[in-house]
Amino acid sequence: MGKINKILLCGYCGVGKSAIIEQLLYGSHVLESPSHSTIEDIYTAVIETDRGVKEKVRIFDTGPAALQEGTEGDIPKHYLNFPDGYILVYDTTSWESFRRLEKLKKDIDKHRDKREVHMIVIGNKSELTERRQVQFDTAQAWAAKEKLRHWDVSVANRKSLVDPFVWLTSKITQPPSKTNFLPGRKTKSTSSNNLDTS
């Protein structure tokens, strides 16, 4: 474990960002408990990657006023410059929360300063099938168009929360390739006749 990588959870107000983190890290979220609007929370976690390496990550839980109901504001720029990875979260029972992802992604793409960042999409509250407004196939098609990985998760099923975080942590902590040299082609040497083989 060297560098501490940073992951930013962002999405519409009330999609369950805090519940996802608390259930993933502590298993302590109580379903149907009253929710309180988050201003900002920061969590530190050690996540085992798909390479079997434990990596320390800092997870930023946002709740900026710009993403609350009734506003069309941008996510504050200071949230867009530092993360190594982004998790865009929507509520499967809210079409509006899904619709807002497109603007969030555009804001992130616009302000990431040509850095390579990894981004995934999580549809929360997948257990509420009778109230579902965003079908999995619709979200999957949008994610594929945007070249993003997509998961449907449920805070009620803690195991469903693990895979997206492991995948993203594995991507943002992937070691650089071993060499910076591109393989070249062999050239014929005319000096081989000058070799003294005696």
UniProtKB/TrEMBL annotation:
Chain segments carrying region Disordered: 178-198
Sample GO molecular function, one term: GTP binding
SMART domains: RAB, RAS
Keywords associated with the record: GTP-binding, Nucleotide-binding
Signal peptide: none
Domain of life according to the entry: Eukaryota
InterPro entries the record matches: KBRS (IPR042227), P-loop_NTPase (IPR027417), Small_GTP-bd (IPR005225), Small_GTPase (IPR001806)
One GO BP annotation of this record: negative regulation of canonical NF-kappaB signal transduction
Gene3D superfamilies xref list: P-loop containing nucleotide triphosphate hydrolases
Biased composition (Polar residues): 189-198
Similarity comment: Belongs to the small GTPase superfamily. Ras family. KappaB-Ras subfamily.
Protein name: NF-kappa-B inhibitor-interacting Ras-like protein 1
